[in-house]
Amino acid sequence: MSAWSGSALSAPGVHSLWTESAPGGTADAAAHGAASGAAHEAAHAVARMTLAAARPVERIPTPKIEYAQLAPVLIVLGAAVIAVLLEAFVPRRFRHYAQLFLTVVALAAAFAAVVGLAAGGHATTRAGIAAMGAVAVDGPALFLQGTILLASLVAVFTFAERRLDPADHGHRVDSFAAEAAAVPGSEQEKAAVRAGFTTTEVFPLALFAVAGMLVFPAANDLLTLFIALEVFSLPLYLLCAVARRKRLMSQEAAVKYFLLGAFSSAFLLFGIALLYGYAGSVSYGRIADVVDGSAAPVDPALASTMGNDALLLIGFALVLMGLLFKVGAVPFHMWTPDVYQGAPTPVTGFMAAATKVAAFGALLRLLYVVLPGLRWDWRPVMWGVAIVTMLAGAVVAITQTDIKRLLAYSSIAHAGFILAGVVAATPSGVSSVLFYLAAYSFVTIGAFAVVTLVRDAGGEATHLAKWAGLGRRSPLVAAVFGVFLLAFAGIPLTSGFTGKFAVFKAAAEGGAGVLVVVGVISSAIAAFFYIRVIVLMFFSEPQADGPTVAVPSPLTMTTIGVGVAVTLVLGLAPQYFLDLAGQAGVFVR
Amino acid sequence: MENLIALLVAAPLLGAAVLLCGGRRLDAAGHWLGTLLAAASFVVAAVLFFGMLGRGAEDRALHQTLYTWVPVESFRADLAFQLDQLSMTFVLLITGVGTLIHVYSIGYMEHDERRRRFFGYLNLFLAAMLLLVLADNYLLLYFGWEGVGLASYLLIGFWQHKPSAATAAKKAFLVNRVGDIGLSIAIMLMFTTFGTFAFGPVLATADKASEGTLTAIGLMLLLAACGKSAQVPLQSWLGDAMEGPTPVSALIHAATMVTAGVYLITRSGAIFDAAPTAQTAVVTVGAVTLLFGAIVGCAKDDIKKALAGSTMSQIGYMVLAAGLGPIGYAFAIMHLVTHGFFKAGLFLGAGSVMHGMNDEVDMRKYGGLRAYMPVTFVTFGLGYLAIIGFPGLSGFWSKDKIIEAAFAKGGTEGWILGAVTLLGAGITAYYMTRVMIMTFFGEKRWQPAPDPHRAPDVEPAAADDGRHLAAGPVGSPAAEGPAGHPAGELPDPHESPRSMTVPMIVLAFGSVFAGGLFSINSAFVHWLEPVTRFEHGHPPVSAAVITTATLVVLLAGAGLAYAQYGRRPVPVTAPRGSLLTRAARRDLLQDDFNHVVLVRGGEHLTRSLVYVDHTLVDGVVNGTAASVGGLSGRLRKLQNGYARSYAVSMFGGTAVLIAATLLMRAV
């Protein structure tokens, strides 16, 4: 509940910004045409009524929406709305199947739409800006959307897994609370469990989150960026809170995530305001023009602030901070271990993979489209962030004793590695990051899916000591997890090696040799704790009261199988995918 | 036609894959499959051979490129084959003798429950060996080189439950590694010098490189050849390698793999021709090994070890011939082929004797077997006559030519080499006559099979592991004697089954006739000439004198052996013997030398390195690890679980971010 109130809180922020920006934007539109009018067009949908009241009707250019190019987002959003209706009208016992079916079909259809757009040349020759300048449809956007959709698809399979826990009162249960609103331990909760309730709302929530993630890396103006951020963040806050086991921990994680997320959103929003003050527009293209001096500030209302470098630099730093928070870069990473540990493990996998893809996509676009002229200003700062992220992630992971926290710190270190590719500031930097994200997301989802299998009486047995000797009890599961760990560590013949090699190569070519050195050192530190888990699984005596490994349904098996397959294929024969990422590496402006 | 070349390698490779991966369900048919695929490879080889005969001498070489592995700039590692006259000779020898030994093994390994695996390894060996001789570049040759090393390791240690076999396998592997390092360094030198590994360009432009480089390459190639062909100083593994099943000794450690060094030197002839120092090293190694092996062969009572000494010595002949340059290459290969026939035949004969004698290997416990094993006696006898160079038989033709070529080297060097080869021929006659007499003639000196219950302090498996079984087929280490013979009874020598005698008979034909056939109109020399080139050597004395001298030393050697072993009873326990005999029994102290110089020296070196590692390296590493761990523990405390402190960290981070950005602009 509290998460929704957060959205209500942030709504006035949007509103007030828009009302301030509206006059400038409109004057701008008169002078420069549609490109500069992107800001209020993006806001159009949000606050139409206010706009209509503030401006004469004939001054509004007719919005032109390229529905076909936005099809992936529209499909997922439409399905999310339908899913809410299903929640309202479908009888409880059919809901699980109806929701799962709808979600899978929607994600698959959206993926097909992405493939169709790419096949139609929208990733390369016909790349362009859609929806009045709000959304870019280009190679990176489509590649990342495809990655997010595929990752979400396999992640949703783990959402739907109902064979891991024994049946409760004759009802099969999944990882989510019977009734999320019930106070943990209350009579209401017990009644819900007895009645066999399940939180099937997770499916529409996931769909909304996916829709936001699809827009996030494609957002071509700052307002769309912000809205997409909120659209995918709010469902994630909720999803974190609905674990069936260890509910208090789950709720604590959600509250922390929400509070810190709102905090970072505020920074981001403030940065957007400053950037608007600097450029007189929230459009990426327009800001870039002002940065490189090709567009002179003309708006008399903003004459005193436009072109003021302090606004640009501070605003840029604040926006950057908002995105770095989402990717989990140090020092904005502190939510990661707590949230990863507390959230239901399927949600953790989904979030760790898809959020990272979306956030890095947005970060790339911001840095490459908006700030190419500022390259030497942002690069040293990003170098610093990448270095501390790689080192801190790897170093702190060493002393972790919980597998989910371990993977959380591992994800922080990986964020650092990806940042090394981001700062390369070359086309090969973009494509290496794209490849890394695709490779990493499947390893992550697979690894967290394996974590859901290892259970004892209290649910998942996430303490590392319990994993001792797992290789003797369940050689297959341990071997699969071993593959994922080797991929995390970047051992050759896994996707992790290919990805790491690509980003380090790009970084070295981009002149960031120091980052490569630090990256390799961090990898060596990180290899220690990955290999330590393998040693623990295969070379330690199993504990007497050790966990059992649940036999999952084909759903989780598919998730893990896809994870292993992608990990090995991208490790053994990566060339096709490297080429694909290479072709998709050019941003449209 | 050239598309068939890959099939040569593919057939046994398929066999190895199927047999080794197929599991127990192939146990019943595995040996047939292995033999069939070896035979298929031989048939392909025959087809290619006749196709080659149908073409003119200059068009005989065939090439087949399958694909290029990692082409990086000028680095091209091609999976490409070259089949010329030299390769063809080897292919026929390998597949022909290989097939015969597969057939022999069907009978020999009948009681071994791991027979399928044995045939898998044999097929693997064939594939690797064919790859070695068919490669058209040194890198692929290296691959085959390592492949035969692996197969040899697996087969020497095939009865790995015997500690002696496991140790022997390890020893062979380690000694071979030393040689392999030579080959890899040679290949690296080639790449830096010529920019390629392919035989064609390297050998065609060899004389363009500086002599120093070529000498280095040549010496490294020689080191490789010493390892694989058991030449001094890397000879020590071959005697112990006899722990492997006898067919393995025949195929790998007599007929084919150990001759790979001769192939390597002959193939790289252009390099050695331009590097006289390396060539001198080659003949020196050959001459020393020739005598070394022969002397060791004289002292051994273990029939297989005596034959192993002989193998070493005969390969010494080949290496020596190959070191003589174009006057010797063709004869080296010719001796290699005839040796392949008669030495394989001798080993199979030895295996047959052991098969009939409770797997006894000590010749002092044989005697008078000719009446009990007539086929083995006749085929072994023909092999014996061939190896000592009895006029008209294979060994005579090939060895005589090598002795002539040694004299033809000219100068003092020629006289020394000629004398050494002559002396070697005499010793060969001596030790082979000794083997022959001790095994097949004289009174019976048979001993009861060892009784495992007699030594209660030794566990049964260990008793079975004793040296008496050093190389016999062992089913399971059961309480009864090996191969089902009850302990404590006298052996009951019998002729071996048909599957074993037929290969022996075929090889005996080769031992008798091959040399003569090759020498009609110097057919073999002309066949190889386009590849190895050939110059007529001119010995300082006429060929007739040399041949006569050879026959004289032969008779002297055989006569001496007859006087010692034929006219006097052979004691069952070996007499103490002279100092030389005792040294030769210990392989001329090779292991003692290696132990004192290499093992002790190595131990001192490693101990001091370990000390440095423990104190210095570990100090740094552990210190780093401890400090990283400590840092981790401290940083971990920052993660205190309070959202408020997380928010502070974010706020501080943002402030730093802004400050840094502004600072960058200011700078």
UniProtKB/TrEMBL annotation, chain B:
It is found in: Endomembrane system; Membrane. Its main location: membrane. Residues 475-490 have a biased composition (Low complexity). Residues 469-495 are annotated as: Disordered. InterPro entries: NADHpl_OxRdtase_5_subgr, ND/Mrp_TM, NU5C-like, Proton_antipo_N. Residues 69-119 form the NADH-Ubiquinone oxidoreductase (complex I) chain 5 N-terminal domain. Signal peptide: none annotated. The chain crosses the membrane at residues 31-54, 89-106, 118-135, 181-203, 209-227, 248-266, 278-299, 315-334, 369-394, 414-432, 505-528, 540-563, 646-664. Residues 135-420 form the NADH:quinone oxidoreductase/Mrp antiporter transmembrane domain. This is NADH-quinone oxidoreductase subunit L. It comes from Streptomyces pyxinae.
